[in-house]
Design a protein that fits this description.
This is Diacylglycerol kinase family protein. It comes from Allofournierella massiliensis. The chain has ten helices and 19 strands. It has about 325 residues and is α+β, with helices and mostly antiparallel strands. The chain folds into two domains: about 150 residues, Rossmann fold (3-Layer(aba) Sandwich); about 160 residues, Tumour Suppressor Smad4 (Sandwich), CATH 2.60.200. Strands 5, 6, 7, 8, 9, 12, 15, 16, 17, 18 and 19 form an eleven-stranded antiparallel sheet that branches. The radius of gyration is 19 Å and the shape is globular. The two termini are about 15 Å apart. About 45% of the residues are buried. The structure holds adenosine-5'-triphosphate (ATP). Adenosine-5'-triphosphate (ATP) binds next to helix 3. The site of adenosine-5'-triphosphate has 22 residues, from helix 3.
Amino acid sequence: MRHVFIVNPVSGKADASGSLVPKIIQAAARQGVDYEILLTERPGHGVELAQQQAAAGEPVRLYACGGDGTLNEVLRGVYGCKNAQVACVPCGSGNDFVRNFGGSAPFLDLENLIQGEAVSMDLIETDQGLAAAICSAGLDAQVAYGIPKFRRIPLCGGSMAYKLSILQAVSGPLGHRLRICADDETITGDFLMLALCNGSTYGGGFMAAPQACMNDGLLELVLVRKISRLQIARLIGDYQKGLHMQGDQVAPAYRDIILARKVRSLRLDTLDGRPIVVTRDGECAPYSSLRAHVLPAAAQIVLPRSVLNTELPALRKDTILNR
Ligand SMILES: Nc1ncnc2c1ncn2[C@@H]1O[C@H](COP(=O)(O)OP(=O)(O)OP(=O)(O)O)[C@@H](O)[C@H]1O
Protein backbone atom coordinates (compact mmCIF):
# COMPACT_ATOMS: atom_id res chain seq x y z
CA MET A 1 0.00 0.00 0.00
CA ARG A 2 1.22 3.52 -0.84
CA HIS A 3 1.18 6.16 1.93
CA VAL A 4 0.50 9.69 0.64
CA PHE A 5 0.72 12.69 2.98
CA ILE A 6 -1.38 15.66 1.81
CA VAL A 7 -0.13 18.67 3.77
CA ASN A 8 -2.07 21.95 4.05
CA PRO A 9 0.62 24.58 4.76
CA VAL A 10 -1.90 27.24 5.87
CA SER A 11 -3.89 25.23 8.43
CA GLY A 12 -3.39 25.99 12.10
CA LYS A 13 -1.81 29.04 13.66
CA ALA A 14 1.57 28.68 11.92
CA ASP A 15 2.85 26.84 8.86
CA ALA A 16 3.28 23.35 10.33
CA SER A 17 4.67 21.93 7.10
CA GLY A 18 8.25 23.02 7.91
CA SER A 19 8.41 20.89 11.05
CA LEU A 20 6.00 18.19 9.88
CA VAL A 21 7.71 17.19 6.64
CA PRO A 22 10.98 16.02 8.31
CA LYS A 23 8.89 14.07 10.86
CA ILE A 24 6.97 12.36 8.05
CA ILE A 25 10.21 11.44 6.27
CA GLN A 26 11.70 10.02 9.48
CA ALA A 27 8.57 8.05 10.51
CA ALA A 28 8.00 6.63 7.02
CA ALA A 29 11.65 5.56 6.73
CA ARG A 30 11.57 3.88 10.15
CA GLN A 31 8.37 2.03 9.29
CA GLY A 32 9.76 1.11 5.86
CA VAL A 33 6.69 2.28 3.92
CA ASP A 34 6.44 3.55 0.36
CA TYR A 35 5.46 7.23 0.78
CA GLU A 36 4.97 10.56 -0.97
CA ILE A 37 4.39 14.10 0.37
CA LEU A 38 2.17 16.59 -1.49
CA LEU A 39 1.43 20.21 -0.46
CA THR A 40 -1.96 21.82 -1.12
CA GLU A 41 -1.67 25.07 -3.08
CA ARG A 42 -5.19 26.53 -2.74
CA PRO A 43 -8.61 25.85 -1.20
CA GLY A 44 -10.12 22.73 -2.79
CA HIS A 45 -6.74 21.39 -3.92
CA GLY A 46 -6.95 18.65 -1.25
CA VAL A 47 -10.03 17.25 -3.02
CA GLU A 48 -8.19 17.15 -6.39
CA LEU A 49 -5.03 15.57 -4.95
CA ALA A 50 -7.02 12.90 -3.11
CA GLN A 51 -9.07 12.14 -6.24
CA GLN A 52 -5.92 11.78 -8.34
CA GLN A 53 -4.27 9.47 -5.80
CA ALA A 54 -7.29 7.19 -5.51
CA ALA A 55 -8.08 7.14 -9.24
CA ALA A 56 -5.51 4.44 -10.11
CA GLY A 57 -7.52 1.92 -8.07
CA GLU A 58 -4.46 0.62 -6.16
CA PRO A 59 -4.65 0.46 -2.35
CA VAL A 60 -3.62 3.85 -0.99
CA ARG A 61 -3.64 5.50 2.42
CA LEU A 62 -4.03 9.28 2.39
CA TYR A 63 -2.94 11.28 5.42
CA ALA A 64 -4.81 14.62 5.65
CA CYS A 65 -2.24 16.83 7.39
CA GLY A 66 -4.12 19.94 8.52
CA GLY A 67 -7.34 20.74 10.33
CA ASP A 68 -10.90 19.54 9.91
CA GLY A 69 -11.23 21.42 6.61
CA THR A 70 -8.31 19.50 5.10
CA LEU A 71 -9.70 16.19 6.33
CA ASN A 72 -13.06 17.11 4.82
CA GLU A 73 -11.41 17.82 1.44
CA VAL A 74 -9.54 14.50 1.40
CA LEU A 75 -12.70 12.58 2.36
CA ARG A 76 -14.62 14.32 -0.45
CA GLY A 77 -11.86 13.45 -2.90
CA VAL A 78 -11.92 9.71 -2.16
CA TYR A 79 -15.65 9.37 -1.54
CA GLY A 80 -16.83 6.13 -3.20
CA CYS A 81 -13.27 4.77 -3.70
CA LYS A 82 -13.03 1.45 -1.86
CA ASN A 83 -9.25 1.33 -2.39
CA ALA A 84 -8.55 4.47 -0.29
CA GLN A 85 -8.08 4.78 3.46
CA VAL A 86 -7.92 8.21 5.12
CA ALA A 87 -5.88 9.20 8.19
CA CYS A 88 -5.88 12.56 9.96
CA VAL A 89 -2.67 14.25 11.12
CA PRO A 90 -4.17 17.10 13.18
CA CYS A 91 -2.30 20.35 12.48
CA GLY A 92 -5.29 22.72 12.34
CA SER A 93 -6.77 25.21 14.76
CA GLY A 94 -9.77 23.25 16.08
CA ASN A 95 -8.95 19.62 15.21
CA ASP A 96 -12.38 18.52 16.36
CA PHE A 97 -12.37 15.24 14.45
CA VAL A 98 -9.62 13.66 16.53
CA ARG A 99 -11.30 14.81 19.78
CA ASN A 100 -13.73 11.93 19.15
CA PHE A 101 -10.80 9.60 19.74
CA GLY A 102 -9.20 11.20 22.79
CA GLY A 103 -7.38 14.15 21.14
CA SER A 104 -4.41 14.92 18.91
CA ALA A 105 -1.46 13.23 20.65
CA PRO A 106 -1.74 9.66 19.26
CA PHE A 107 -2.49 10.98 15.75
CA LEU A 108 0.63 13.18 15.83
CA ASP A 109 2.70 10.14 16.77
CA LEU A 110 3.25 9.30 13.09
CA GLU A 111 4.72 5.84 13.58
CA ASN A 112 1.73 4.91 15.77
CA LEU A 113 -0.55 6.23 13.01
CA ILE A 114 1.29 4.42 10.20
CA GLN A 115 0.88 1.19 12.19
CA GLY A 116 -2.83 1.96 12.67
CA GLU A 117 -5.78 0.21 11.06
CA ALA A 118 -8.77 1.38 9.05
CA VAL A 119 -12.21 1.48 10.61
CA SER A 120 -15.33 1.76 8.55
CA MET A 121 -17.11 4.99 9.57
CA ASP A 122 -20.26 6.87 8.64
CA LEU A 123 -20.31 10.29 6.99
CA ILE A 124 -23.06 12.90 6.62
CA GLU A 125 -24.19 13.81 3.11
CA THR A 126 -25.89 17.19 2.78
CA ASP A 127 -27.11 19.14 -0.23
CA GLN A 128 -24.16 21.48 0.52
CA GLY A 129 -21.56 18.66 0.56
CA LEU A 130 -20.13 15.98 2.86
CA ALA A 131 -19.39 16.34 6.57
CA ALA A 132 -17.31 13.95 8.64
CA ALA A 133 -18.25 15.04 12.15
CA ILE A 134 -21.03 17.62 12.60
CA CYS A 135 -23.33 19.75 10.52
CA SER A 136 -24.93 22.50 12.58
CA ALA A 137 -27.18 25.48 11.95
CA GLY A 138 -28.15 28.59 13.88
CA LEU A 139 -26.40 30.68 16.51
CA ASP A 140 -23.23 28.58 16.84
CA ALA A 141 -22.70 28.47 13.07
CA GLN A 142 -23.41 32.22 12.88
CA VAL A 143 -20.63 32.89 15.42
CA ALA A 144 -18.17 30.77 13.39
CA TYR A 145 -19.28 32.53 10.18
CA GLY A 146 -18.55 35.95 11.70
CA ILE A 147 -15.01 35.24 12.93
CA PRO A 148 -13.04 35.76 9.64
CA LYS A 149 -14.50 39.28 9.24
CA PHE A 150 -13.21 40.33 12.68
CA ARG A 151 -9.85 38.63 12.10
CA ARG A 152 -9.24 41.03 9.22
CA ILE A 153 -9.20 43.93 11.72
CA PRO A 154 -5.57 44.86 12.56
CA LEU A 155 -4.40 43.50 15.97
CA CYS A 156 -7.59 41.45 16.38
CA GLY A 157 -6.39 37.91 17.25
CA GLY A 158 -8.36 34.66 17.17
CA SER A 159 -9.79 34.88 20.69
CA MET A 160 -10.82 38.55 20.32
CA ALA A 161 -12.42 37.81 16.91
CA TYR A 162 -14.37 34.93 18.51
CA LYS A 163 -15.65 37.18 21.34
CA LEU A 164 -16.63 39.98 18.93
CA SER A 165 -18.46 37.49 16.73
CA ILE A 166 -20.41 36.13 19.75
CA LEU A 167 -21.29 39.71 20.71
CA GLN A 168 -22.51 40.46 17.19
CA ALA A 169 -24.53 37.21 16.97
CA VAL A 170 -26.32 37.69 20.33
CA SER A 171 -26.98 41.39 19.61
CA GLY A 172 -29.05 40.55 16.53
CA PRO A 173 -32.38 38.72 16.28
CA LEU A 174 -32.11 35.37 18.06
CA GLY A 175 -33.54 32.13 16.71
CA HIS A 176 -35.37 31.05 13.59
CA ARG A 177 -38.84 29.71 12.89
CA LEU A 178 -38.04 26.28 11.45
CA ARG A 179 -39.77 23.21 10.08
CA ILE A 180 -37.61 20.21 10.88
CA CYS A 181 -38.35 16.76 9.45
CA ALA A 182 -36.29 14.23 11.39
CA ASP A 183 -36.90 10.88 9.64
CA ASP A 184 -40.74 10.64 9.81
CA GLU A 185 -41.26 13.20 12.56
CA THR A 186 -42.05 16.84 11.72
CA ILE A 187 -41.34 19.51 14.33
CA THR A 188 -42.22 23.16 13.76
CA GLY A 189 -41.11 25.85 16.18
CA ASP A 190 -38.67 28.60 17.11
CA PHE A 191 -35.15 27.28 17.52
CA LEU A 192 -31.82 28.84 18.49
CA MET A 193 -29.72 26.18 16.81
CA LEU A 194 -29.41 22.53 15.93
CA ALA A 195 -26.55 20.09 15.55
CA LEU A 196 -26.67 16.94 13.41
CA CYS A 197 -23.85 14.84 14.79
CA ASN A 198 -21.89 11.90 13.48
CA GLY A 199 -19.09 12.76 15.92
CA SER A 200 -19.41 14.33 19.34
CA THR A 201 -17.52 17.60 19.10
CA TYR A 202 -17.28 20.77 17.00
CA GLY A 203 -16.38 24.44 17.23
CA GLY A 204 -13.02 23.82 18.88
CA GLY A 205 -14.32 21.52 21.63
CA PHE A 206 -18.09 22.02 22.07
CA MET A 207 -19.44 18.56 22.90
CA ALA A 208 -22.89 18.62 21.30
CA ALA A 209 -23.43 14.84 21.42
CA PRO A 210 -21.10 13.21 23.96
CA GLN A 211 -22.34 9.68 23.18
CA ALA A 212 -22.21 9.98 19.38
CA CYS A 213 -20.89 6.86 17.70
CA MET A 214 -19.29 7.29 14.27
CA ASN A 215 -20.00 3.80 13.00
CA ASP A 216 -23.55 2.99 14.14
CA GLY A 217 -25.36 4.12 10.96
CA LEU A 218 -27.18 6.84 12.93
CA LEU A 219 -26.81 10.57 13.60
CA GLU A 220 -27.59 12.37 16.86
CA LEU A 221 -29.84 15.37 16.34
CA VAL A 222 -29.72 18.01 19.09
CA LEU A 223 -32.26 20.85 18.85
CA VAL A 224 -32.10 23.90 21.11
CA ARG A 225 -35.32 25.91 21.31
CA LYS A 226 -35.25 29.70 21.13
CA ILE A 227 -34.27 30.89 24.62
CA SER A 228 -33.38 34.21 26.24
CA ARG A 229 -29.87 35.68 26.31
CA LEU A 230 -29.69 34.88 30.02
CA GLN A 231 -30.58 31.23 29.37
CA ILE A 232 -27.94 31.10 26.59
CA ALA A 233 -25.31 32.34 29.05
CA ARG A 234 -26.32 29.55 31.49
CA LEU A 235 -26.44 26.82 28.83
CA ILE A 236 -23.20 27.56 27.00
CA GLY A 237 -20.76 26.15 29.61
CA ASP A 238 -22.74 22.93 30.02
CA TYR A 239 -23.17 22.55 26.23
CA GLN A 240 -19.40 22.89 25.81
CA LYS A 241 -18.76 20.09 28.33
CA GLY A 242 -21.60 17.87 27.06
CA LEU A 243 -23.47 18.23 30.38
CA HIS A 244 -26.77 19.06 28.62
CA MET A 245 -26.98 15.30 27.94
CA GLN A 246 -27.04 12.30 30.29
CA GLY A 247 -26.21 9.28 28.19
CA ASP A 248 -28.67 9.28 25.28
CA GLN A 249 -31.20 11.47 27.16
CA VAL A 250 -31.32 15.22 27.61
CA ALA A 251 -30.27 16.15 31.18
CA PRO A 252 -33.32 16.93 33.38
CA ALA A 253 -32.35 20.63 33.74
CA TYR A 254 -32.60 21.12 29.96
CA ARG A 255 -35.59 18.94 28.98
CA ASP A 256 -37.84 21.95 28.37
CA ILE A 257 -35.42 23.61 25.96
CA ILE A 258 -33.46 20.79 24.25
CA LEU A 259 -34.75 17.92 22.12
CA ALA A 260 -32.52 14.98 21.15
CA ARG A 261 -33.19 12.26 18.58
CA LYS A 262 -31.26 9.49 16.80
CA VAL A 263 -32.01 9.91 13.10
CA ARG A 264 -30.98 8.84 9.62
CA SER A 265 -32.14 11.94 7.77
CA LEU A 266 -33.01 15.58 8.31
CA ARG A 267 -34.84 18.24 6.34
CA LEU A 268 -34.77 21.78 7.60
CA ASP A 269 -36.69 24.73 6.14
CA THR A 270 -36.67 28.28 7.46
CA LEU A 271 -40.19 29.67 7.79
CA ASP A 272 -39.27 33.25 8.76
CA GLY A 273 -37.75 34.37 5.45
CA ARG A 274 -34.25 34.76 6.97
CA PRO A 275 -31.42 32.45 5.83
CA ILE A 276 -29.85 30.36 8.59
CA VAL A 277 -26.07 29.91 8.76
CA VAL A 278 -25.01 26.26 8.35
CA THR A 279 -21.58 24.85 9.14
CA ARG A 280 -20.12 21.52 7.94
CA ASP A 281 -16.87 20.57 9.65
CA GLY A 282 -16.22 24.30 10.15
CA GLU A 283 -17.07 25.56 6.63
CA CYS A 284 -19.95 28.07 6.98
CA ALA A 285 -22.55 29.68 4.69
CA PRO A 286 -26.17 30.92 4.96
CA TYR A 287 -29.01 28.86 3.41
CA SER A 288 -32.80 28.84 3.50
CA SER A 289 -32.99 25.04 3.70
CA LEU A 290 -30.85 21.99 4.38
CA ARG A 291 -31.17 18.33 3.45
CA ALA A 292 -28.91 15.81 5.14
CA HIS A 293 -28.68 12.07 5.71
CA VAL A 294 -26.26 9.52 7.09
CA LEU A 295 -24.00 7.59 4.71
CA PRO A 296 -23.36 4.39 6.68
CA ALA A 297 -19.81 2.99 6.49
CA ALA A 298 -18.89 5.48 3.75
CA ALA A 299 -15.26 6.08 4.75
CA GLN A 300 -12.33 3.98 5.88
CA ILE A 301 -10.65 6.02 8.58
CA VAL A 302 -7.28 5.01 9.99
CA LEU A 303 -6.93 5.10 13.77
CA PRO A 304 -3.57 4.83 15.56
CA ARG A 305 -2.86 1.48 17.17
CA SER A 306 -3.13 2.92 20.71
CA VAL A 307 -6.61 4.37 19.98
CA LEU A 308 -7.87 1.04 18.63
CA ASN A 309 -7.10 -0.49 22.03
CA THR A 310 -9.20 2.10 23.90
CA GLU A 311 -12.94 1.95 24.69
CA LEU A 312 -14.61 5.03 23.21
CA PRO A 313 -18.27 6.04 22.65
CA ALA A 314 -17.29 7.14 19.12
CA LEU A 315 -16.32 3.64 18.04
CA ARG A 316 -18.01 0.26 17.78
CA LYS A 317 -15.18 -2.24 17.64
CA ASP A 318 -16.88 -4.79 15.37
CA THR A 319 -16.21 -2.85 12.17
CA ILE A 320 -12.43 -2.77 12.16
CA LEU A 321 -11.15 -3.72 8.71
CA ASN A 322 -8.04 -5.79 7.94
CA ARG A 323 -8.42 -8.07 10.98
N1 LIG B 1 -2.23 26.46 -0.02
C1 LIG B 1 -3.41 26.91 0.45
N2 LIG B 1 -3.65 28.25 0.49
C2 LIG B 1 -4.80 28.74 1.01
N3 LIG B 1 -5.79 27.96 1.53
C3 LIG B 1 -5.59 26.63 1.54
C4 LIG B 1 -4.40 26.03 1.00
N4 LIG B 1 -4.49 24.70 1.14
C5 LIG B 1 -5.69 24.45 1.74
N5 LIG B 1 -6.35 25.61 1.98
C6 LIG B 1 -7.64 25.81 2.70
O1 LIG B 1 -7.32 26.07 4.07
C7 LIG B 1 -8.54 25.97 4.79
C8 LIG B 1 -8.29 25.77 6.27
O2 LIG B 1 -7.73 24.52 6.49
P1 LIG B 1 -8.07 23.63 7.76
O3 LIG B 1 -9.52 23.64 8.05
O4 LIG B 1 -7.44 22.32 7.54
O5 LIG B 1 -7.29 24.37 8.92
P2 LIG B 1 -7.85 25.13 10.20
O6 LIG B 1 -9.03 25.98 9.84
O7 LIG B 1 -6.67 25.79 10.84
O8 LIG B 1 -8.28 23.91 11.15
P3 LIG B 1 -9.69 23.50 11.81
O9 LIG B 1 -10.69 23.40 10.69
O10 LIG B 1 -9.43 22.18 12.47
O11 LIG B 1 -10.01 24.59 12.79
C9 LIG B 1 -9.32 24.88 4.10
O12 LIG B 1 -10.61 25.36 3.83
C10 LIG B 1 -8.56 24.64 2.77
O13 LIG B 1 -9.42 24.63 1.67
